[in-house]
Each structure stands twice: as C-alpha cells, then as structure tokens.
Design a protein that fits this description.
By secondary structure, the protein is mainly beta. The protein is built from two helices and 28 strands. The protein starts with about 35 loop residues before the first strand and ends in an 8-residue tail after the last strand.
Length: about 450
C-alpha cells in the first residue's frame, strides 16, 4: 500500500542549471535567419525626414546611430534626468570624460575600448541577436565572425578583434543585450548593404491618362546590381500595374486624391561566390497626388510691327470749262473789239477771241489697300505654380497675354514691357496659393 507525505517548502532545494547552446548562422552574402538582424546606422546631417531618410532592414539609419550612441557610448550632449536611479549599480554621474548628465555604463571594465564614429555621414553596423537565441547573455569568448578575409572574435572583455588583420579593433559586443557594434569604418562593408528603395512622389492632374513611373532607375543598388524584373508591389488599391520591367503604371481614376503603393526590388551581389547572391531592398513608397485640373493656359498673341506704307498718289481728273458760242453769253468776259473808221467807211471786224478753257484739277484719292498682318500665336504655356514670376519674350511688337482656365482669376498680370532686341518681354506673377493644381 502506497503512502504519500506532503513535503514542506523548507524541504525543497532548487539548484539552478545553466545550459549553453552553440549557434551557427550562415551569411553568404547576408543572413537569411530572422533571429539575427544586421542594421546600419549613419550620422546623417540635416533634419530628420519621415519620408526621405534612409531605411535599412526597416529601421531609419539616423535613429539606429543615435540609439546605439545613446545607450552604449554616451557620446551625446543632451541631459538625461535619472535621479531616481542614482542607487543603481550601473549608474554614474557626470564626469569630465562624460559629457552627459548621467548614463548607464553596462561595461565598466577598463580594458574595454570604445571608439564611436562622429564624422558626418560616418556609419556603424549593428548585429542584433534575438533573445530567444542568446537567453541571458552571450558567453564571453564565444562570439566570432569569420570569412575568407577576416576572423573577428570577442576578447572576453567586450572588444571585437580581427585576429586575421593585425589584431585590428573592429568594435564592441554587449553580452547581456546580444548586440555587437562594428565601429571601424574599414569594416562597414563586411556585410553587403541591401538596395535602397527611395520615397517617390508624383503629381498629375485628373485629366491625365494612365501614368508610368520608373522605379528601377530610382533605386540605389549600394554596390549591388538591381534587377528590374524583380520589382514587387504591395498594392491594396488595384490602381497600380507592375509592368515587369521595373516600371509601374498608375491607372488614373481621374478623381482627385492621394494614392500610394509600396514596392521592393532585389539586387545581385557582384563578384560573390555565394549560391544565393540576391538581397532584397527595403520597402519603398510611391505616392501619386491626383489634383484637380484647375490649371490655366497662358496664350501669347504677338502683333507684328506694321511697316509704314507709301503715301497714295492722287489721280488727276481734268474738268474742262465750256467754250463760248456765238449768241451765247460767254462763261467769262471777252475782250471788247476795237472799231477803226476810215474814209471809205469800211468797217473792220475784229474776230471774237475765244478764251482757252481753264482746267480745274480735282484730285480723287484712291488709297492702295495695305494687307493687315495676322497676329502670331506663340507657345501656349500650361502653368500653375504659385508665388513665381514668368517672363515671356515677344519677337515682334509688344505681346498681349490671354489667360484662360479655372485659375485665371488668380493671375496678377503686371504690364512691364521691357525692350529685348526687336521685341519685348511680358511679365506676370501668380501671387496667391488658392488654386491647388499642378
């Protein structure tokens, strides 16, 4: 007959058992196991942009650089208020060698060499191991990275040393976090960089037909050869068509709005002996703004200079004066005849003098018709950009600008004819931003 006895808690002793496991990851040319990730950090200049900052393995390079610097190297200048943690074993106050107000020092071994790059656009590579793999920590002296041209191993203190190349200091490992940081600039390409798919923005109006965008040409291979046919779309709108050659066609619904899709491309690592030589880019973003076709057209009508025509030559039309007839009253007085009396009393009749007709010239002006020059229609400009000045040259005489379209009322047409060669320059300004168009 079996009997059971209840054991007291004091009778139970727990003995910890530590089990270690060796893991080997292949990375030819890039680790394909999600338990180990390789990130890139870059000390980028300028302000942060959510859309345009570089992304590697789904992480902004600028933020990776700042986070690693903040957590492990303390090479930042902003204050950190952690007074409530002053009793922590890993807490240190500000010193002459530490510019920060306070920080956590995860490794205070004096043999630890910390060298963090601070130059503009200098970078780091971060090897992050999943905690499901390393457990409590990575065992000292048990981390190594080997390839044909280097052999990197930790020294048990936290330094990563390349024992194949003059014991060069490569970076650091933080055992309890499963994070290794490659800080040496000569080793930044020990792992190839995935292609960089950028953020693309296109603006079209609602009258535009289907619109094609070349995404292949926009991708930075970063040392790899980008394969155009590897383009993959992540589209939930059904408006983007993958043409299979690195281009995407946007099937314009002709409805104003914002349409977007995400995409990736693969690149082939050149001069590699790896079986799988392809690396996938980050997810790039393509945004299409379809705006109302409220643009306007500027039509320039130039009136050619009219050359002066010669004065018309008058046509002379003579008007004869009627001749006086016997027994009629002359149109003008006739000279009085002279009678001479001789002894024979024979009268001598002096003939009547007929005056020469007076010609009166009445000019009849018949002008020679001059052809009217036809206006010259210059280029029609499709413009809709606010706050800009436009200068249009006339090649004949002062041009007249005709503005049409939904945005025409927003145009400030300032007449400033400026002599330019044989013509003029017309000046006008689009001043307000009321009209949202291309």
């Amino acid at each position: 007959m079996a009997s059971f006895k209840r054991l007291k808690r004091s009778d139970v002793i727990s003995v910890p058992y530590v089990a270690n496991k060796n893991w080997v990851f292949e990375f030819c040319p890039y680790p394909d196991d999600k338990n180990i990730m390789i990130y890139k950090g870059t000390n980028m200049t300028g302000s942060f942009s959510l859309d345009y900052d570089s992304v590697t393995e789904g992480q902004y390079e600028r933020l990776v650089y700042s986070q690693i610097n903040h957590l492990f190297y303390q090479n930042f200048t902003s204050s950190l208020s952690t007074s409530s943690l002053a009793s922590s074993l890993y807490y240190d106050a500000m010193t002459q060698t530490r510019a920060t107000h306070s920080y956590f020092d995860y490794n205070d071994n004096p043999l630890l060499v910390k060298s963090f790059p601070t130059g503009a656009m200098e970078g780091i590579r971060v090897i992050s191991i999943s905690q499901d793999i390393y457990g409590q920590k990575v065992l000292p002296h048990q981390f190594e990275i080997s390839a044909s041209n280097f052999y990197i191993k930790d020294d048990g203190v936290g330094n990563l040393i390349d024992y194949k190349n003059s014991n060069a200091h490569v970076g650091n490992i933080f055992y309890s976090h499963g994070i290794s940081v490659i800080t040496n600039q000569d080793y930044q390409l020990m792992f190839p960089l995935p292609p960089l798919a950028p953020f693309r923005v296109e603006r079209i109006n609602d009258a535009t037909g289907n619109y094609t965008v070349n995404l292949h040409n926009a991708v930075d291979g970063r040392g790899c050869i980008v394969n155009a046919s590897s383009l993959e779309l992540f589209d939930d709108t059904g408006l983007f068509t993958n043409n299979g050659n690195g281009t995407v066609t946007f099937n314009n619904p002709q409805v104003p709005g914002v349409y977007q899709t995400f995409y990736t491309l693969e690149a082939t690592l050149a001069d590699s002996n790896c079986t799988n030589k392809t690396i996938t880019s980050n997810k790039g973003k393509l945004v299409i703004y379809v705006v109302k076709n409220c643009g306007f057209s500027v039509q320039i009508v130039e009136n050619p200079i009219v050359s002066p025509s010669p004065s018309p030559t008058p046509t002379l039309t003579p008007t004869p004066t009627p001749t006086s007839s016997p027994g009629s009253i002359p149109a003008s007085p006739s000279p009085t005849p002279t009678v001479t009396i001789t002894p024979t009393i024979t009268p001598t009749i002096t003939p009547t003098i007929t005056p020469t007709p007076t010609v009166t010239i009445t000019p009849t002006l018949t002008p020679t018709p001059t052809p009217t020059p036809s206006p010259v229609l210059a280029t029609v400009y499709q413009i809709c950009s606010t706050g800009a000045n436009y200068f249009i040259e006339g090649t004949y005489s002062y041009p007249k600008i005709t503005i049409s379209g939904d945005c025409a009322q927003f145009i400030s047409n300032t007449t400033r004819p400026i002599a330019v060669g044989a013509g003029y320059t017309e000046f006008f300004t689009i001043t307000p931003s009321t009209c949202d168009c291309i």
